[in-house]
Amino acid sequence: MLKVGSSLLAGFADQAGGGLDPRYAAGLARFIAEARAQQREVVLVSSGAVAAGRSRIEAGGNGLVLRQALASLGQASLIAFWQGLSPVPVAQVLLTHDDLRNRRRYLNARASLRELLRLGALPVINENDTVAVDELKLGDNDNLAAAVASLVDADLLLIATDIGGLYSGHPQRDPSARPIPQVAVVTPELLDAASGGAGALGTGGMRTKLEAAAKAATAGIATALFCGRDAEVVAALGEGRLHGTLVAARSDRLRARKQWLRHAPASGCLRIDAGAATALHDRGASLLPGGVVAAEGEFRRGDVVELRGVGDAVLGRGLVQYNAGEVRRIAGRHSRDIEALIGFRYGESVVHRDDLVLLDRASEPSQSSNGDAGPGAVTELPKEVLP
């Protein structure tokens, strides 16, 4: 997961209205391409719509309603900007925090992002500024990036800034300020020390980046803060080296998720055949409709369900992608028949491997095992950070 702020994209940084400039974005685009070449999936959260919109129309002022209109004007330009730097198709995804608080919309967004990654596209996410009044007013793309990192089960959140990470003081005002290579915990004192204004074109300063890192940490995701204006720093990322600040994850993401799935109340049960049970255990696969024998209970999409085999033993638990009635209609059928049977499809699996925990063995399906494609991201970087 990579978040890029408007201060790295806007042209003529000292003069509002300069549109979008590829001077720094080109290096970040190369990093994305290199990560994808290494079989790492990347989701991009990008600001810059307001700056792009301001270059298309003469409009003085900086009021909230005006910024909403400018964001609407500039969104198409922002996507075209990234498409011009990307060798793969770019997909626009507009989200608000409400999309991530509402369970149904959360699951729909997650399914769409997974499908885009499976198709080989680069999802470019931005806040839906035209309707997200509070988010635009607060400049919350940093925190949105943390929420989306959790949504796609990212291994690492990268936040590109216009300075080299976190310092002991303001590097432009304090000559004695020293870089801080690692942060174990984001404390209230650290947040207070990081408070300060953002650039003329940006809305989030270092405090919002640390807030985002703290939220990602609680989800088991480390955050790397680095200078997106330094070509050497950006190039080093592709080699697994961070010149910046690493905010550590507070817990193991997969372990925390598995523990929750183990103990969350189940709303129903899926009976699966022997072939499906073997695929789950031996290949780390998702549960496909062809392996489902029956659905018991009344559950909704996103509920936790138990997986039982031929006997009555519980083999696993997971989040179901379809409600009970839909599962009954697609049970035993091929994934390609889902849309013909129920009129739509959220994906080809009934329970995705990322949302599954097996109860009768110590090891769990690996994110990189053979099976249905699921979100992955940079994993080596946190292990090879340079001070």
From TrEMBL:
Keywords: Amino-acid biosynthesis, ATP-binding, Cytoplasm, Kinase, Nucleotide-binding, Proline biosynthesis, Transferase. Substrate binds at S47, D129, N141. The lineage of its organism: Bacteria, Pseudomonadati, Pseudomonadota, Gammaproteobacteria, Lysobacterales. It holds the Pfam family PUA. One of its GO terms (cellular component) is cytosol. Catalyzes the transfer of a phosphate group to glutamate to form L-glutamate 5-phosphate. Residues 268-351 form the PUA domain. It comes from Lysobacter antibioticus. ATP binds at K3, T161, D162, T203, G204, G205, M206, R207, T208, K209. One of its GO terms (molecular function) is RNA binding. This is Glutamate 5-kinase. It is found in: Cytoplasm. The keyword Oxidoreductase does not apply. It is an enzyme of class 2 (transferase). GO terms for biological process: L-proline biosynthetic process. Transmembrane segments: none annotated. Pathway: Amino-acid biosynthesis; L-proline biosynthesis; L-glutamate 5-semialdehyde from L-glutamate: step 1/2. InterPro entries: AceGlu_kinase-like_sf (IPR036393), Asp/Glu/Uridylate_kinase (IPR001048), Glu/AcGlu_kinase (IPR001057), Glu_5kinase (IPR011529), Glu_5kinase/COase_Synthase (IPR005715), Glutamate_5-kinase_CS (IPR019797), PUA (IPR002478), PUA-like_sf (IPR015947). PANTHER family: GLUTAMATE 5-KINASE, ISOPENTENYL PHOSPHATE KINASE. The gene is proB. Its EC number is 2.7.2.11. It catalyses: L-glutamate + ATP = L-glutamyl 5-phosphate + ADP. Residues 362-387 are annotated as: Disordered. Gene3D superfamilies: Acetylglutamate kinase-like, PUA domain.
